[in-house]
Amino acid sequence: MRIAAPFAIAGACAGAVVVSWLLVIAPAFHSVSKVPPVEAASFIFFGLPIAVLALVLVFWPVTAAVRARRTFYAITDRRVLILRGPGDGGFEEYAASDVRDVEVRALRDGVGDVVFAHSGQTLASGRELVRAAGFSWVRDADAVAEQLRALGAGR
Fold this sequence. Notes:
It is built from three helices and six strands, in the order ααββββββα. Helices cover about 50% and strands about 30% of the residues.
């Protein structure tokens, strides 16, 4: 998959930098500079959470790419099927009548997300929570959207 490769390389590089800083550079700097224990403790409480957040932000696209590769989509003459990999949510099925307002969110090189259904839930506070259903990171997203529009229109 061409889209995931740059994210994987960037994630690996960032991870290596953060891990080397935590394991090699920070302790060496501490022993040379004679940092008082209070400042070392502040690093543990502030620096470590920031480093963990940075790792999560770097690896998020990589995990999304892996999840997308383990997901299979099918459009039949009566329904749309989404089969997700282990631990990602299982199986979803949408009838042709659920397919409406098909929208393409282009990423690059013809790859994109195709959203075709919106499900809502009213919370106790009165707010409405809307979840969009669709296909993620599909090749030739415009052609897939046309097939979904034809299914929704009953053609």
